Amino acid sequence: MKKIGLFLMIAITFICCDIRKKDKVVDGSATMAEMAAQDSTTVQIIDSVYNFGTVTEGEKVTYNFRFKNNGKKPLIITNATASCGCTVPEKPEKPIPPGETAFIKVVFNSKGKAGTNQKTITVSSNAHPEFPQLLLNGEVTEAK
For residues 41 and 110, what is the distance between their CA atoms, to the nearest angstrom? Predict the structure, then answer.
C-alpha cells in the first residue's frame, strides 16, 4: 500500500514538472516573436497590381513589381510563390539595404490559359507589416 502511494506521489511530481516545461516554452516563443519584430523592417510597395491587357495564347508576359525598403534594417525576401505553375516569380537573392528599391520579376506563360486570368504572388520576408500580395491579371485570347 505504501508503495502505491509513493508511486502516485512520484507520478504527480513528474506531471507537475512537465507543465512547468510547457510554460517555459510559451515564454521562450514570446521572446522569439519579440526578437523577430526587432529584426523586421518596413516595405513600400510601388507596384502591387499589373494588368497586362489582352495577349494571344502562348505569349509570355514579363513584369517587375517594384518595392522599396523603408525601414532601418535590410529587407530579406525569403520566398516568392505564385498561385499557378504558369506564373514564375524571381525574388532578389541579396538583402535590400534601407532606402533601396528592388523588384520581383514575374513571368506568366499564357499557353493553355485562354480567358480571364488573375494570378497572385505571395512574398515572404522580414517586413512588418507583412509584404502584401501582388496581382497579375489580364485577358488571354485563343490562338488561331
Answer: 35
